[in-house]
Specification:
mainly alpha; MetI-like fold; two-stranded antiparallel ribbon; 14 helices; 2 strands
């Protein structure tokens, strides 16, 4: 009886250690968010103390209203949302068509080499195209300080990602269903819209979320290309200063407000995100 109890005791110890590890990891990952929240609730004087405090001495809920003292700060959130949404729709539309072509007609579409070349455009450092892109958009009718400049510029990075991922999703979709639809007299476009597209819908939502988050959080191009007529929230955050003093509480408050749209989208679409990111992982 004692020998039979020992394995159970060992597994109990392993479970306790595993839970302790998860607790420490959870504490490690959530601490930055916790510190953001308490910093957003502190007064300016408390945020500049030499020894940081881990709980506000006086809750300053007015910081969340103070960040909108300038109306342009709220407009920056709107500009970011418009840019990210339009760019995501364009990336998803063009990436879906290109991904389907590479998945179903690889030879006619250019083959694996062209598909990999498209993906490789996502790999080079963004700073490498700053100067040529600046002169390119400066010669356009809308100039550089425009939402269309960022929308088109973000396509350089989101479109290759959308194309490659959608190509993988379409490859995993059974082609036999399309062929059966052809035998029933369906056109290729009808079969694509009514059969193939619903099969990869979770994957499309996952791709859309990845593209949207990139466009929503991008800072480098937004800081260099726009700033007068168009402002994104990422270039507003560093402007919360008072002389040479950084207003960390206002920066954290505005950052928490900017987290609301992506977190809300992820909560609403989490079921499709999990299904989309797991497409092709398990083969029957």
């Amino acid at each position: 009886m004692a020998d039979q109890a020992r394995p159970d005791d060992r597994w109990r110890h392993v479970r306790v250690l595993f839970l302790a590890f998860l607790g420490l990891w959870l504490l490690f990952t959530l601490f930055p968010l916790y510190f953001m929240i308490i910093t957003a609730l502190k007064t300016t004087a408390e945020t500049n103390l030499t020894v940081p405090t881990f709980w506000p001495e006086l809750f300053a809920f007015g910081n969340f209203a103070a960040v909108f003292a300038e109306a342009t700060n709220f407009d920056a959130l709107i500009d970011s949302f418009v840019i990210a949404t339009i760019n995501t729709l364009l990336s998803l539309f063009l990436g879906t068509l290109a991904g389907y072509a590479f998945a179903r007609f690889p030879r006619q579409a250019g083959g694996e080499n062209l598909a990999f070349w498209i993906l490789s455009n996502r790999m080079f450092p963004p700073v490498a195209i700053l100067v040529p892109m600046f002169f390119l958009f400066d010669s356009t009718p809308w100039g550089t300080d425009s939402i269309w400049s960022l929308i088109i510029l973000y396509l350089v990075f989101n479109l290759p990602l959308a194309t490659w991922l959608m190509m993988v999703f379409f490859r995993d979709a059974p082609r036999e269903l399309e062929e059966a639809a052809y035998l029933d007299g369906w056109t290729p476009l009808r079969a694509f819209l009514r059969i193939t597209l619903p099969l990869v819908l979770p994957g499309m939502i996952s791709v859309a979320m990845l593209c949207w988050i990139f466009a929503w959080n991008e800072y480098l191009f937004a800081n260099l290309f726009v700033g007068t007529d168009v402002r994104t929230y990422t270039i507003v955050i560093p402007t919360f200063t008072h002389g040479s003093q950084t207003l960390w509480n206002l920066q954290m408050a505005f950052s928490l407000i900017a987290m609301i749209p992506p977190v809300t989208l992820f909560i609403l679409l989490r079921r499709y995100m999990v299904r989309g990111l797991s497409l092709g992982v398990v083969k029957g």
